[in-house]
What does this fold into?
Amino acid sequence: MEITCSTGEQVGCRIGYFATEHWRRIRARLIGPATVCSCCHANAPLGIHHRSYERLGNEGEYDVEVLCWRCHKSRHASNPNLRCPLPHHGCTLETFKKAVRKSNARLIARMRMMARIKEGRKT
It folds into this structure.
C-alpha cells in the first residue's frame, strides 16, 4: 500500500509517513500550542493519536488528537480494530519510538528557539 500526502509526498510505510513534511506540519500545528493531554489533562510528553485512518495523508484536525503516551496506549487498547494501514516494513517498535522521540525533540528545540527570538535573545 502507498499513500500520497497533502504535500504530494508518497510513502509506503509508517516510518516514512512520520518523516514527511505533511506529518511534521500536523505535529507542529497541534502539539505546538498544546501543553496538556486532551484526555487526562496531564502535563506530560505529548503525541498525536489518529481517531481515524480514513484520510491518512490528508488528515483534518478532527481525525487526530493530542494525547500523553498513557492515554494513547489506552485508546488503542480500547479499540484494537483501529490500526494504521501502512506496514512497518521490518521496523521494530523501538525504532518507531526512537523516530517519534527524535521528531518531538526537534519540535521542542524549534519552539524554544522561537521563544528566545520573541524575547529578543539570539541563543
